[in-house]
């Protein structure tokens, strides 16, 4: 779905986290190269690009328009990628345009849980449908939600207008502000290592239940 805002060269929107993960599996099979969504920790590491400021370009939100599409300049739509300045590591649209899926379940006080600790792998596997993590802010958001540290969880409201019974596990009818960014690791993980980034047992069961429900309608 594009809502008339553009397709070629624009972000893909309205996909669930599950759909984005399945796209990565498809792309990996098609290309022979391994792709996945980033973990939340990886996303912020890449977004900050070595900085410790509110945004990757500093602390002044007045400069945000040079780097991001957001509520103050988007003209109520998302835009073609790569039109704004990149962060210090050359990543475009890391702030704004569309918020981006991470692999994690969203835990509101996750950072507080890790305070004073060293976490080698802070990934929080998905164990329920809501909330799941998106980062980066979007064309619909005000400046504070585009900060490198700003966090957000998905909501049932993102699927409010879905008329299907059961509601789709693939699309968010009301989330034209959510997209995703993919990771291709420098070193391809072993099959054992890749398991933690693959579908969780909850997601596998959710897919099975959805297929059964769909079959029951026929």
Give structural notes.
- The chain has 218 residues and is an alpha+beta fold.
- The protein has a single domain, classed as paralog of FGE (formylglycine-generating enzyme) (Alpha-Beta Complex), CATH 3.90.1580.10.
- It is 22% helix and 7% strand.
- It has five helices and four strands, in the order ααβαβββαα.
- The protein has a four-stranded mixed beta sheet.
- The longest helix has 17 residues, at 201-217.
- The chain is globular.
Keywords:
218 residues, alpha+beta, 4-stranded mixed sheet, 22% helix
Structure at a glance:
The protein is of the alpha+beta class and 218 residues long.
The name of the CATH topology is paralog of FGE (formylglycine-generating enzyme)
Radius of gyration from the alpha-carbon trace, in angstroms? 17 Å
As a percent range, the share of strand residues is: 5-15%
Structural class of the secondary structure composition?
alpha+beta
CATH class: Alpha Beta
Sheet bearing the most strands, described? 4 strands, mixed
Shape: globular
Mean pLDDT: 95
| Number of contiguous helices | 5
Q: Level of helix content?
A: 10-25%
- Count of spatially separate domains: 1
Strand order of the largest sheet: 3-2-1-4
Low-confidence stretches: none
Order of helices and strands: HHEHEEEHH
User: What is the CA–CA distance across the termini?
Assistant: 25 Å
